[in-house]
Amino acid sequence: MALLVALAAAHFALVRCCSLHPWLGGGFGMFSTVDARTLRVFRVDASGERPLEIPPELEDAAERVEALPAEAWLQAFARALAEDPALAGATLAAEVWETRFDAEMRPVPRRLAGVVVAADRAGR
Amino acid sequence: MPGARGVAERAAQRLAELGTRDAPLLAAQLTCAALLLAPIGGWGVRPLVLVLAVAGLLAPAVAASARFFALLAVLAGVRVLLDWPLPDNHAYLLAIWCSAVAVSFASPRPRAVLARNARLLVGLAFALATLQKAVIAPDYMDGTFFRWAVAVDPRFEELGALLGRGGADLERTRAFLEAWPGEAPPGAAFVETAALRAAAHVFTWATVLLEGAVALLFLAPPALGLGRARDAALLLFCAGTYAVAPVAGFGWLLLAMGIAQSEGRRARWAYLAVFALVALYRGAE
């Protein structure tokens, strides 16, 4: 019983401090809130931001980053993405967004976390 | 070779034995059945869990062993660690439940210890679920969650059509909800009838009231003699929720915990029937 209470306390702390997805962890928050998180990745250059597709081999990592958008994990994700030769030397941005809905059901997105990995650091 | 009649008689005998089986053993074997029907973990954990689940089902003495459930608890815990942070509620609850079964079987009074553990675990899990919905989530009690879920979840499609939102209206609604603000395709809009909005509020309140009732009944002192009400509330929750929610494994786990604290053959049969009903729901998915 103590273990269940401790896990629930950890869940609440991680949701509050680190934006853990409320459905996950040991807090019994499934089906309590809208489940709409998105990882958006961009190539950043002088002309602005161009959205990138997440390659299939990084889908698992993307799922983890959406679940717990820690900056270190986002950095690691962006660096893994930068290993694509087509993105060599590019500056990349990775952001996790959560969408809520207002009373008229209009989407209200909120950025939970984001990183920019500069060209000289990408791929390291 | 036994004839068809012989096979039927033996099957009926086995089925009749289930109802008379000791509650802790039945709970242990239902947990094994749940692990077999809804396998857990990746390839590092799953094969061993499946082998253990089959062993527990075939050999009651194995299923009633503290070491067996301690091993299952370790594997369920390893699965949580390997998949972290992706495991949800029931992955944690499974690991804790297997630990509780192990501790109970190691005690001199397994039946009483397991029944108490089961009551507290179900009660706490439902209390937390109620707290999340009624207090913490910003978009549950106002109906937003179900207004969204009824639109995006395919299992609500038929109900949605019945209440006035089908075909093109549903497509327009999904396109609106799934688009980035300002990037919705032409024609996308949130289409909702008064009946749909009312249904979302009914689901909201029915869920939170039923979950709250299960929490209160399972956390109430046993001396109050609420056993029948406890069983009825949990059975009603499982029979209703897992017709829709895609987490049959969680339903089976709750039913195994329910049977562990149940008193009397009738209640055990009811738990077994709802366990089978959840399997039927899953087969129909």
Structure description:
The complex is a heterodimer of chains A (124) and B (285). Chain A has 2 domains: 1-35, no CATH class; 37-124, no CATH class. Helix content of chain A is 30%, strand content 29%. Chain A contains 3 helices and 4 strands. Chain A has helices at 2-18, 59-67, 71-81; strands at 37-45, 48-52, 91-101, 107-117. By secondary structure, chain B is mostly helical. Chain B is 75% helix and 0% strand. Chain B has 14 helices and no strands. Chain B has helices at residues 4-20, 23-37, 46-58, 60-63, 66-83, 89-106, 110-136, 144-152, 157-162, 167-178, 194-219, 227-241, 248-261, 265-284. The chains are: A alpha+beta (124), B mainly alpha (285). Chain A binds chain B through residues 1, 3-5, 7-8, 12, 14, 20-34, 36, 63-64, 67-68, 100-101, 103-109, and chain B through 85-89, 92-93, 96, 99, 117, 120-121, 124-126, 128-129, 132-133, 136-140, 142, 144-145, 147-149, 176-177, 179-181, 190, 192, 207, 245, 247.
Short summary:
The complex is a heterodimer of chains A (124) and B (285). Chain A is an alpha+beta fold and 124 residues long.
Number of strands of chain B: 0
Number of helices, where a helix is a run of at least 4 consecutive DSSP H or I residues of chain A: 3
Strand percent estimate of chain A: 25-35%
Number of domains of chain A: 2
Biggest interface reads:
A-B, 37 and 40 residues
Radius of gyration of chain A: 16 Å
Largest sheet of chain A, in brief, is: 4 strands, antiparallel
Unreliable segments of chain B (pLDDT under 50, ≥5 consecutive)?
none
Characteristic terms for this protein:
heterodimer, A: 124 residues, alpha+beta, 2 domains, 4-stranded antiparallel sheet, B: 285 residues, mainly alpha, 14 helices
